[in-house]
Amino acid sequence: MPGAAKHESSWDSAFYRFAEGIRSLSRGAINYKILYALVGTNGRYVNHSNALVRKRTAAAFSRLIHSSRYADDLRESYHRDDEVFSYAASELVEELRHTSEQDDAAIMDALLGTLMDGVQQGLLNEQLSGRMDVSRIRLRRELGALSAWCHAAKVGGEIPLEELVAAIFHLLAFGRLDERFARTLFDATPAEGAQDDVLANEPEFDRVGDACLIRVRDDRSAPLDGIWRVRADEPFTIGRYTDCDAIEADPLVSRLHCRIYCDDGTWYVEDTHSCHGTRVLRGDSAASSTVVFDSEQSESPVFKLAFGDRIELAGRVMYWFRSLAMRGAHQ
Questions:
Q1: Domain span holding position 32
Q2: pTM across the whole model
Q3: How far is Cα 313 from Cα 260, in angstroms, rounded to an integer?
Q4: H-helix or E-strand containing 58?
Q5: 69 near 14, Cβ under 8 Å?
Q6: Residue 119 located in a structural domain
Q7: Beta partners for 121?
């Protein structure tokens, strides 16, 4: 029954999965009550001198962590003190060092395993049950970037346990990473974009009907900054949001600046209410191109693209729109 499925999904929450992972890692020493006491608004009641208060608090926490309502409580705690997740992370990491009998590297690997296999699915369960602040695309991108960042730090001789745990607490509360922290995980689009030789080896790269975008540096000259395959069966987004397909760092680019999509074999660019506009330039070369679309002057935010067009964001960032066959024709 649909109602039963919804109830089952909400019961299997992200906080519950995280608590189970911590309990296992700490060999049973840190249960959900101790964990919740670190970040919950009523955590002080866990160790209350009155046994009845402790019992009722434990029962309330048990119900709370099995629904997305825990997120409201965590957000309230964060709004009272935006350092609460950092403080809680330091305490939890110290406890894990004492109870897990593992070194920092092993603890980080275990936490990443809980994050990727447990917390992620828990958040998706909550989304199915109606939680509105969880985006599948953004979640996948941010967790992938966080995991890569942790592994890169490990290779460099650092184990960022406190940062990882604080990020998980924020993820539980808001369904996403802290925006400032997320920005440090994602470089500007050029460093994140798939390079031509890598993209060419993708098994689906030569799908009939797909296109590609090539980002040009600010001086609009070679070498190129990156190339992305644009699928005909799903929109491609550009902006500063971490769930965009091409992620920009330029402050004049809007968080969701524009999208490129295909409809019945015809390609379009759509300005998504950007602050500084989207333009399309057309011509044989960058120097000879003329503006054929300017979202700030056009009545419609949508414009029909042709292969070879240049898409300019905020007058500063340029992408070339190409068919796959044209990707080697760098002008």
A1: 2-185
A2: 0.60
A3: 13
A4: helix 51-65
A5: no
A6: yes
A7: none
Q: Nearest to residue 33, comparing CAs of 64, 76, 11?
A: 64
The amino acid at 12 = D
Domain edge (last residue) among 155, 185, 215: 185
Q: Are residues 232 and 138 in the same domain?
A: no
**Number of domains, the chain:** 2
Q: At what angle do helices 14-25 and 120-128 cross, to 10 degrees?
A: 160
pLDDT of amino acid 32 = 79
Q: Which tokens go with 310?
A: 């240049």
Which CATH number is 281's domain given? 2.60.200.20
Please tell me whether residues 120 and 236 are part of one structural domain: no
Residue found by looking up tokens 């540096």 in the block:
217
Does residue 331 belong to any structural domain of this protein? no
Angstrom distance (rounded) from CA 62 to CA 55: 11
Question: Which residue type does 233 have?
Answer: D
Angle of the 32-39 helix axis to the 84-99 helix axis, nearest 10? 150
In a domain, 68, yes or no: yes
Q: How many Cα atoms sit within 13 Å of 318 on the Cβ side? A: 17
Give every strand in the sheet of 246-247, ordered side by side.
246-247, 236-239, 258-263, 266-271, 302-304
Q: Which two tokens stand for residue 271?
A: 């300005």
Decide if 209 is inside a domain.
Answer: yes
For the chain, 331 residues long, the average pLDDT of each consecutive 10-residue run is: 45 86 94 80 50 52 61 88 94 96 96 95 86 82 87 92 96 89 61 39 52 70 62 90 82 94 94 96 82 95 94 92 62 42
Pairing of strands 236-239, 246-247: parallel
Q: In the listed set 133, 156, 185, which residue is the last one of a domain according to the structure? A: 185
